[in-house]
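Quick check before the chapter quiz. The format below is the same one you will see on the exam, so make sure you can read both the input and the output lines.
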Amino acid sequence: MNRVKALLCILIPILLAYALNTKFGSTPPILRFLNPFTGFWQNAESNKLKANGKIALKGAKAEIDIIFDDRMIPHVFAKNDYDVYYAQGYVTAMHRLWQMDFQTRFAAGRISEVVGEKAIEVDRYQRRMGMVYGAENSLRGMMEDPKAREMILAYTEGINDYIHSLSRANYPIEYKILDFKPEDWTPIKCALLLKQMSAVLAMGSDEFYMTNILKKFGPEITKNLFPDYPFKEDPIIPVGTKWDFKPLPIPEAPKAFTEMMSTTIETKQKVEGIGSNNWAVSGAKTASGFPILANDPHLDLTLPSIWYQIQLHAPGMNAYGVSLPGAPGIIIGYNKDIAWGVTNVAADVLDFYQIKFKDNSHQQYWYNNTWENTTKRIEQIKILGGKTEIDTVYYTHQGPVVYLEKANYSRANNVPIGNALRWIAHDKSNELMTFYYLNRGKNYDDYRKALTFYTAPAQNFVFASNQNDIAITPNGKFPLKWKDQGKFILDGSDPKNDWQGWIPAAQNPTVKNPPLNFVSSANQSSTDPNYPYYINWEFSPYERGKRINDRLMVMKGANVDSMRNLQMDTYSIAAQNLLPYILPSINQSKLNATQKEAFNAIAKWNKFFEAKEIGASIFDLWTKRLFYNIWNDEFTIKDIPMRYPNRDRTIELIQKEPNSVWFDNINTKNKETLNDLVNESFKYTCDSLEKKYGSIGKNWHWGNVKGSNVPHLAKIPGFGSKKLDIGGGKSTVNALSETNGPSWRMVIELGKMPKGHGVYPGGQSGNPGSPYYDNMVDTWAQGKLYDLFFMQSQDDKSGKVISRLKISKK
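Here is the expected output.
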C-alpha cells in the first residue's frame, strides 16, 4: 500500500504538470501562460516609455531615426530607400507581429496549424481559391522590378530582425494563448496580404445564384428583376462626361449557355457595407482656396486595427498615412504636395467557368473541341493535434477548380463537372509601385503615372494637389468583356467565354477638375451607360453617393469640419425614397398600443440614423422584413441557392408597380397585395423589437439595437471593444453596422504646407496590455479627428515627441 501511495505521489504531480503544460482545445497551457517570467504578465505595458533608445541591427545600411509621437505613431527618417522600408518592417512588427502572422496564415490556408480541425474548411477553401498561387504570381511581378524588389526585401529583413530579437517572454499574448510561436517572415507573405485584400474587396460572387435564377425564371424575368443599370443612380464619373478616346472593339458574345447545372454551391454572397467613401473638393469650394480631400474606407472592424499609421521620410519622399501591416509603403495618405485615397470599384474581375472533365481522374477537360490537360497542385494542410490532410487542386487554363460537384455527374451528359475560377488576383502584378510613386508624387501627372502600375483590387483613386487639381479614377486592370460576361456561370469549353484582352489603362474612366468643383465615390456605378466598356452589371446602392453629392453640391467655404461632419452624416436616402410609399399604407385602426406608438415614432422620424433614434431601428427591421415578404416565396428553394433582387429594384417596384405580381405570396391561397405585406412586416417589426428589447423606449434606440463594437481579430473574448452607442447605418454616409464601418477616417487640407486629420477605431499597438491598443476608439466613436503630426525634420522639438529610437548598422 505504501508503495502505491508513493507511486501516486510521484505520478499525480507529473500528470498535473503535463496537463497544465498541454494545450486542450482552445485553452492554452496553463502553467506556461501563467508563468511570471514568460507568460501573459510580461505583456503589460506602462504608459511611460523610454525617452531615447539605441540599437544596432545588422540589416540597417545607415543610421535611422524613428520618432514616436504621443499616440505611438512612428515617424521614420532614413537616408535611403532600403532603410526606410527596413525600418517600416521592423517597427510594424514591433507593434503588430501577431496580426501580420495571423492574417497571412489565414490567406494561405494555414489556420488549422494553430487552432486545429475547426478551421479545416476555411483552409481548404483558401487553397482552392488559389490564394498562394496568386501570391506567387504577384510576387514574381514585384521581384522583376528593382524598386519593388528592394521594398519587399528590406521590409522582410526588418520584420525578421525584430522577430529574432524576441524571447518567449515578450511574444505577443495571442501566441501564448494559442500556443504557437512566430516564424520567419518571407516575401510571399507580403503578396499574400495583398491577395487577401483582393479577396475581401472582390465582394463575393453571385454567378451561381444568378445562374439558378436564370434557369428557373428565364431571361426575360431575370433581366427585368436584375437590370444592368439601376433605377436610381448618381455615378462616380459625372453623367455626360465625354470620352476622348477610340474604344477597342468589344468581343462577340457567344450563344447563350443552356447546359447549366442546377447547382447547390453556396459561395460568399455580396454583402452591403464593405465599401467606402472618398471625395475631393477644389479650392473654389473651400475657405482656404486650396483643395480638401477626404477618405473613409469601410471594412470589417477589428482590434488590432486593419491599418497602421506611419510617416516615411527618405530622400525624395516624405509621406504620412496608413499602411497595411505586412506590406511596405503608405496606401492612403498625403505628402507636401498631394493627397490620395481609395474606395472599392466592385469591378467584375472574378468569373466562374463550368468545366467538363473526361473522367473522375480530372486529368483532362473539354476545351475548344479537344481534351486539354489539367495541372495539379497538391495542398498539404497541417492540422494541430491531427494528421496532415492532402487536398488535390486541379487547374485549367482559366485557373483553379474551386468546386467539384458533389454528385460528380451532370444529368445531361453523364460527365464529371467542376467550376474553375478566373480571377485577376491570380495574375502577375506589382501594385507596390503604385504606392511607391504616390508616396513621392508631386502633381497630377505623377498620380496618373502611379495608377498605370495598379492591377487589383480595383479601386476608385481620388486625388488632390496643392496646384489646385482634383481627380478621381476607377482604376485597375479591367478585362475586355462582352456585356454581362460573368453575370452568370460561363461555359468553360468555349474559347469565346475567355477574357479576350484588357481595357487600356488610359481608357479607364476618369475625370479631372470637373465643373462641379468636386469629385466623389461611394462604390456606386463608375459611369453612366455611355461608357463604351463593361465593368460590372451591379455596384453598391447609390444612396451614399447621392447624399455625398447633394451635400458637396451646395457646400461653400468648406473646411475640415465640413468634411468631418459629412463623414459622420447619417441621413438615409433609402428612407427618403421608401417611407412616403409605405407609411400611408399602414392601417392604424388595427394596431395595438405598442404598434401605434411605433407608428408615431417613425412618422415623426427625421430619417437620420442617429444613436438615440427609435425610428431608425423600426425602419431597418421593417424594410428587412418587407423585402423578405416580397421575395422569399419565389427566391427561396430548398437546395438551390438564390438571391433576392436588390434594394433599388425593390423600391422601384414599390414606387412604380404597386400592383406587381411579385407582391403575392405564392405559398398561400389568398392573393396578397403590397398593403398586406407592408402591414404584416410593420407589425412583425414592432412585435420583434418588443420581444427582444421590452417596451418601446430607450432600449429601442438605434445605437442599442445596432450594437456596434470592434471585436478582436481572432474573436478572443475580452480583447475586443465595449459596445459603442453610436449612429450610422449601411445605407448612410457613416456606413456603420455592428462590426463593419469606417476603418480609417482621413481629411487632408492641401496648401503651402498640408494639414492632416485622421483617426481609426483602435490604436497603434496590437498588444491588449498596452495603453495604445484601443486609445483611439472613443475619439473615433465621437466622430472627432486627431491632428496628424506631419514632421519635416527628425530634429523637431515638439512636445508631441515622447520617444526616439536610433538604429545604427551593427
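If your answer matched, good. The two ends are 65 Å apart (CA to CA).
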